[in-house]
Amino acid sequence: MKKGSSPPQTRISSYFSQASSSNPSKGSKNWSGLIDLTGEADSSDSEPPPKKRKITTPSSPVFSRTSEWQYTPGLNTQTTAAKPPTEREIDAKKKRQEAFRKKLLADDHRFNRRASGTREPEQDEVEELSGGESDDEFKALTKMFSVKGQDAKKVVSKKPVRTNSARKVAEEKGPCGQPYTPLEKQVLQLKKENAGTVLMIEVGYKYRFFGDDAKVASKELGMVSFNDRNFLVASIPSHRRDIHLKKLLSQGYRVGIVQQTETAALKKVGDNRNAPFERKLTGLYTATTFVDGLDSVDDVDKYVAPPFMCIVEEKEGPHDGDVRIGLISICPSTGDVIWDAFEDTLMRLELETRLSHTKPAELLLHQGGLTKATEKILSHFTTISSISGGIRVEHFQALMPYTDAYSYITDFYAKKKAGPIVSDNVRSGKILADISDLPKSVVVALAHSMKYLSKFGLADAFLETNFFTNFSTRAHMLLATNTLQNLEIYRNETDYTTRGSLMWILDRTKTRFGARLLRYWVGRPLVDKVALQQRIDAVEEILASSSEKLVDLRQVLKGLPDLAKGLCRIHYGQCSPQELAILIRAFKKIADSVKAMEKPSDVGFDSALLNDIVFSLQHVKGPVTDMLSIVNLNEAAEGKKATMWVDPERYPDVLDRDLAILQIEAELDDELKAIRRLLKFPSLQWSTISGEEFVVEVKKSDNRPIPDDWNRISRTKYFERYQPLSVKHKVEEHNQGQESLKAEAHKAYLLFLAEISQKYYGVLRNTVTKLAVADCLLSLAHVALLPGYVKPCIVEEDVLEIVDGRHPMVEALRDSPFVPNTVLMGGPEPKNKIITGPNMGGKSSSVRMVALIAVMAQVGSYVPATSVRINLLDSVLTRMGASDDLARGRSTFMVSMAETSEILRSATERSLVILDELGRGTSTFDGMAIADAVLQHLVQSVGCKTLFITHYPSIALGLEKKFPRHIHNLHMGYEAETRVTGFRDITFLYRLTSGIAPESFGVECGALAGLPERLLSVAAEHSSQMKDQVIARTNRNKTKKTMRLLHTCLQGGNTATCSLLALRLVTEELVADHY
């Protein structure tokens, strides 16, 4: 250096001491200003503060040996990894907790949580926060890293160095060329274990989709997918999980929820703290097995909760035509189980009828074990289903023999019987006795359903056989699929919505479980006269009575949640504390609405059905009282599983963990007192910053004496946030305690739900069923108040008499009044009616009106007519409209013939049969021949009540003459006025009139449709010519027949008498045609 030159600039390296020095933390302050590099090197004022190094977690799960001894200035810790507590520390902690427990509980074994408000510090709080001193090992390490570079190298070189190559293991590389991370390996294993399932995997605060699942999420949920190392990835926020889950389920996917089964706080003290979070499949769902919450806004169809159905089939011959089918249908959301065993024909119309009634959203079938006819109908049904994502189909490989199936069911109930809490049905063996009475095919289907639903945790739905229902019972009429469609029972045939259907007319229910029962009633009208009369009498008494009990019953039904679904969520252990509070309050409302009675007659109604309903409601009082003595509803409504118990000692493990947390909070209060004294800040309170609790926040401008060993959390322009090491350790204990308390509280809550399910499910479910019946009766009473509705009269005489009947849906949809019609069938009147008339004249509406009034009467409803007398029908069979079935390879005519064949097979003398334009779709003569033969068969062989619509006047005339006592011709009234141009204007009167309509006025109907007049003129001319030709040909044939019969009679012989009778009939026809 030259003389006279300016002093050299201080080097940064000069600030790092080359030798041991005194404790740098002594008297130092937390430095936050700029470093002045131009000051003197030995100036104490310019000495920079110790550099705070950022601690990061190594990317590799295995730490190197050198990082284990890494020195970090400013930290009073020896290693970054948390050490598990020793036995001495655990014993000391238990003693502190026990002492705190005794102090807190005092003598009455009760405790109250500390109020959350601020507490003023005491004046004598003058204790100082003492700092810990470094141990010998820490001083030695400090000295080692303070020597000169050469000495440090010598010291380090004395230890053997392990190179990374010596312990590196060849790892499998992914598609991107990089090794799989621990998380990716975990994902691979999860996807391998759950093939065919879309997995939503919890990673931090998001749920992520990996691989093909990310493609599904991108397609169905409209989200972006991107490549992240070895997987295509898509993610959603945790709080949006259920929304996206239900969207995927609605599209027919099976979705699994994979959650982190350990928390950060517990993982930190666990044995696998350096490994990825443990993740397990905690939920598996399909559209039918997902039981939505009580307050869900996505449950839009109040009539049908999506059911699951298992179908097994057994051939009864060498061909596919005759089979025996067994099925089990269960609705997991409501717990309703329906079973049936039946024989079916090649067209599988019986199976189709059951599918139409139950509307399953998921099918479980035998892979390769069904006939082609059954597979075809199931494929057709899944295609036309109204479910947005279609019907999901699952298969099982091998069909259980009956003995194996029964053994599986027996083992299932035996395991339940060995549980800590057992229902009376399982304990007594009644449930197995009921199942042994089921048909063998149903038992096999039940075993497969149990096995499948066990994967979803829903097999407990089969624990109550009291709610097993046979689909086909003698007490109900079964409406076939085409009848449901033709009469628009559940939905209209225009836009396929409820509006304009019979359900739309009859449904005035207040609850969802009531609406579902009413749908069941409407689809299965009663054929048991006693049960039907009880319904009708109950509706009549509701209309006439002013009893306060009915008023109370209406008030109870208002605002009730879906209790059936809520009980099922309890049964499956899926009910949240908030939902439990809602359910208990609802049942308490029911219990408070009735007084204790000894027998049903004490209720005071004339109707035995109403007495039974009101009397049964008092049975819920006992369960409600028991539950209220256990649960604090206010705490449960806030979702507090740990503190929702009236008696905290009911679950001691929960209480112990709660007390441990209170002890830690008390110790943190002591820490706060010490910090207040140290900082001379009496009003200091704990702060929570970005989720970090128990943080000390001070203003920079206050210049508080912050100890150097405090960990600074964050800082802003005006504030700094710290957490002392002693507080940090207690916060970790506090977090671990909270997680442990949460797990134990959840375990205790599930035990309580299981207790409710086993003890009270049957009683509570029976109460819900009675309320559903009450809701349906009140709904029918509301319908009875509609203008022009009357009570039907159920008679023993074989008649169906409707005076001034009206179509219920058309009347409700139209502003103009409906033209009533009278139909008399049976008794002195013929049981069969042939209806002719102009197109658009109202023939189909009139016959539908008759069928709908009959159905309404046997449901128990009042009907739109002046009077109705009806003998109970055992079925209503219809063949109306024209439609093909290309999916099943059937033309329009084939569909018509198949439906007619099923009607001829099913009809009895107590049936009502409706045939609309039978025979169209083929040649005129073939159609006429089929229509004539079918009607003659119904008249001669079956003897049922028939409404036959046709456009063949010759058939109507011939059959009425042949069966004058059994067939009566009717036609829809009209007025025809001929214009100057030769065209006729038709005015429809919509009134059934005796006699035959001579023509159908098809050309005039075309004019109403807007066809060109020139075209209509040609059509009218050809129609007249063809009519004359047909009449002339008919007359010629009759003349030839007359001459042939006359010749036979003149020759004599054994056939002369028969020929003479036939000659008389033909002669009468010729005379009638002439006049």
TrEMBL record:
Keywords of this entry: ATP-binding, DNA damage, DNA repair, DNA-binding, Nucleotide-binding
Pfam families linked to this entry: MutS_I, MutS_II, MutS_III, MutS_V
Domain DNA mismatch repair proteins mutS family: 911-927
TM helices/strands, residue ranges: none
Biased composition (Basic and acidic residues): 85-110
GO molecular function: ATP binding; ATP-dependent DNA damage sensor activity; mismatched DNA binding
Entry-linked Gene3D superfamilies: 1.10.1420.10, DNA repair protein MutS, domain I, MutS, connector domain, P-loop containing nucleotide triphosphate hydrolases
Disordered, as annotated region: 1-135
A Gene Ontology BP annotation from the UniProt entry: mitotic recombination
Cellular component annotations (GO), alphabetically ordered: nucleus
PROSITE patterns named among the record's database cross-references: DNA_MISMATCH_REPAIR_2
Residue ranges with Acidic residues bias: 122-135
Biased composition (Polar residues): 1-31, 56-81
Record text on subunit structure and interactions: Heterodimer consisting of MSH2-MSH3 (MutS beta). Forms a ternary complex with MutL alpha (MLH1-PMS1).
Described purpose of this protein according to its UniProt entry: Component of the post-replicative DNA mismatch repair system (MMR). Heterodimerizes with MSH2 to form MutS beta, which binds to DNA mismatches thereby initiating DNA repair. MSH3 provides substrate-binding and substrate specificity to the complex. When bound, the MutS beta heterodimer bends the DNA helix and shields approximately 20 base pairs. Acts mainly to repair insertion-deletion loops (IDLs) from 2 to 13 nucleotides in size, but can also repair base-base and single insertion-deletion mismatches that occur during replication.
Family in the record: Belongs to the DNA mismatch repair MutS family. MSH3 subfamily.
Protein name: DNA mismatch repair protein MSH3
Source organism (scientific name): Armillaria novae-zelandiae
Lineage, highest ranks first: Eukaryota, Fungi, Dikarya, Basidiomycota, Agaricomycotina
